[in-house]
Design goal:
alpha/beta; 364 residues; 7 helices; five-stranded parallel sheet; single chain; 18 strands; eight-stranded mixed sheet
Length: 364
Amino acid sequence: MRSVDVVVIGGGQAGLSAAYHLRRSGLEPGRDFVVLDHAPHPGGAWQFRWPSLTYGKVHGMHALPGMELTGADDSRPSSEVIGAYFDTYERTFDLRVHRPVEVSAVRGGEGGRLLVETSEGTYATRALINATGTWDRPFWPRYPGQETFRGRQLHTANYPGPTEFAGQRVVVVGGGASGTQHLMEIAEVAAETFWVTRRPPVFREGPFGADQGRAAVALVEERVRRGLPPQSVVSVTGLPLTDAVRRARESGVLDRLPMFDRITPTGVAWDDGRTIEADVILWATGFRAAVDHLAPLRLREPGGGIRVEGTRAVRDERVHLVGYGPSASTIGANRAGRAAVHAIGRLLERVDPPVAGRPPTVPV
């Protein structure tokens, strides 16, 4: 068992932001804090994105603190561009991320410490920054007859790009940004496409400024304050009405159908008698927060979510969640990493105050 002041779980945008601010506070990676990442390479969830998602198609990638991403080729896959950027960032600031490391559980330990159980052993830590995001928990809705479908079902998490759907009939389920992106590029090669959503999509026209952004984040933040599962920021902002989206609407690609009632061996069906024959059902139905490893701490509220004030879990002040709920955007993750480090500094100084001649354990 190794003892450190802070464990950061996750090496994506939020985790690296937190590590950067821990480093700036005077803590030494490996000695005072450690970053654990289960992914095989730098890049967070970006390394798993489909090849057709080029950097030029990425909406709102915000630079990590202390180092801009410059000179990127918009035609290169975002997984390559951002993976290389994260790799350079980790080396520039000597963050010494441990990977691949799986975290199985976080439990209470002796002396006020948390025990982080991992594939490389157990860490005893005074504070935890959880930055695990959502990519590892794709949400698959369940519908009657789903197991009888003879075609292919897949999720955004394992979407391979459009070429595999050439000549096929494809049902895309989901009204978010991923669903529309998948649909528009698949429609160029598929025999036929169908778009199905639970609610009519909301398209956003005009500029989206700071005031609108703050209002959207506030709606998501209110849910986590009430202990409800967080929604994505995109779910409350609507879909931007770009030139590509306008063309897809005019051509009929984005003609939306209401959610089907059941799945048949050869497609999908509605209770009013309508049916669609399909070779593929692509579930672009989003993700949930990957926090199952925190279950032993009993942080969840009756509403199903973890109640958070700022970044702090209300049920355990040693635990901070970054990249969760309102901080799930790239700029929000940056800010949350800094806020968590400041709050943890105050916590550790309070429980282990400095004495004459000895500096504080964690500089504030």
